[in-house]
Design goal:
Bound molecules: pyridoxal-5'-phosphate
Largest sheet: 7 strands, mixed
Strand order of the largest sheet: 2-8-7-6-5-3-4
Oligomer: single chain
Order of helices and strands: EHHHEHHEHEHEHEHEEHEEHEHHEH
Helix content: 40-55%
Mean pLDDT: 95
Structural class: alpha/beta
Number of strands: 12
Number of helices: 14
Length: about 400
């Protein structure tokens, strides 16, 4: 067992970039005033939040009044779905929300609860085996009762990129709001909201080399959503609670860096990922790539292996010095198939043997090559029940 761990789990979280950490640092103990306070300490942190907001707005191509800081992408997704005046929608003729079956739990579980409480109706958009929205069938589904369409942009578990821009332009001429969870795409795709034609967009800083515990919500028309917590007037009253100044400063800095590097990082990682996929599929029998083979995040490789328990595989990879994931939140010692893969029609055997390898700034060709040979060895040994 090696003591150093090679990190190949960048879709779960990323390390905070040095420049981001440096930008945050003064706002812990030097400039610590409450941004709502009138004195100079408060003015200083309020100004820091407003310049972070302006920077985010400039990058996304919207007015600063459309940007809100939350504590996570989970909260941002909840704020849109729960806050979208669903009571009003339920009473009108538009009460129907369409999502894909492969959304993050913060979307799926929220919709499940809203529907069980009789607030709106939830249905799934048709997706292909890779989890990508079927565009032609999509257009036929846009009936008069639909209030909101919510589609994940880059899938965290299987890497598929949805045709958000195309869906956005189909919805443009209709009175249907469009939300996308763009958490996984920040490092790789330009996120101008006018190009994408989205009404709501969710981000989380810790997925793009920023700190954990801070989310961003873009809302074209903030008046359309109600706050889901009651309290003070922070964030225009939409998200009460004293803002976490250092995290907000870090989120904006991280977004700026990630969006400036998205082309070069995509170009650097794509061939490494392609080589990883090629070798794994060639050398490991009864294996398959999950997600779309073309329209996928440049850093993302996800597989299923027949006759393998993900948790066991991850444990042995960890012992060999590699941090990977199954892609879904499964519990140690409790081999459960991925709900997402089952929803896409994978048999239980394959859905229990998922592996997600997600590259990032620290990944090199050499790392990928070494990892691939270890993976081949570990899968072989697990299948032949040899003690490792
Ligand atoms: C990580 C992730 C989230 C949740 O982000 P948090 O800020 O950790 O709540 C939501 N959606 C996607 C696609 C993610 O990958």
């Amino acid at each position: 067992m090696s003591s150093e761990i090679v990190y190949l789990d960048h879709s779960a979280t990323t390390p905070v970039d040095e420049a981001v950490f440096a930008a945050m640092k003064p706002y812990f103990s030097e400039y610590y005033g409450n941004p709502s306070s009138l004195h100079r300490q408060g003015q200083k942190t309020e100004a820091a939040i407003e310049s972070a907001r302006s920077l985010v707005a400039e990058i996304l191509g919207c007015p600063p009044t459309s940007i809100f800081f939350t504590a996570s992408a989970t909260e941002s997704n909840n704020l849109v779905l729960q806050g979208l005046s669903l009571d009003r929608i339920l009473n009108s003729s538009r009460y129907h929300v369409l999502t894909t079956p492969v959304e993050h739990p913060s979307v799926l579980e929220t919709m499940r609860q809203l529907q069980s409480r009789g607030r709106g109706m939830h249905s799934f958009l048709p997706v292909d085996r890779g989890g990508k929205v079927k565009v032609t069938e999509f257009e036929n589904l846009l009936s008069d009762d639909i209030a909101l369409v919510a589609t994940i942009y880059g899938n965290n578990e299987i890497g598929t990129i949805n045709p958000v821009k195309h869906l956005g332009s189909s919805l443009q001429s209709r009175p249907i709001a469009f939300h996308t969870d763009a958490v996984q795409t920040v490092n790789f795709i330009d996120l101008n909201v006018n190009r994408l034609q989205v009404d709501f967009l969710t981000l989380s800083a810790h997925k793009f080399y920023g700190p954990k515990g801070v989310g961003i919500l873009y809302a074209r028309d903030p008046g359309a959503i109600q706050p889901i917590m009651k309290g003070g007037s922070q964030e225009s009253g939409l998200r009460p609670g004293t803002q976490n100044v250092p995290l907000i400063v870090g989120a904006a800095k991280a977004l700026e860096l990630a969006q400036s590097l998205h082309k070069s990082e995509s170009a650097r990682l794509r061939p490494l990922r392609d080589e990883l996929i090629r070798v794994v599929l060639a050398r490991i029998s009864d294996s398959a790539l999950t997600g779309d083979s073309e329209e996928r995040l440049p850093h993302h490789a996800s597989f299923v292996f027949s006759g393998i328990d993900s948790n066991e595989l991850l444990t042995y990879l960890d012992l060999r010095g590699y941090a990977c994931s199954s892609g879904s939140a499964c519990k140690v010692g409790n081999p459960e198939p991925s709900a997402l893969l089952l929803a896409l029609g994978y048999p239980e055997d394959l859905a229990t043997g998922a592996l997600r390898v997600t590259l990032g700034k620290s990944s090199s060709a050499e790392i990928v090559e070494d990892f691939t040979s270890v993976l081949i060895e570990v899968v072989d040994s697990l299948r032949s029940q040899v003690n490792l």
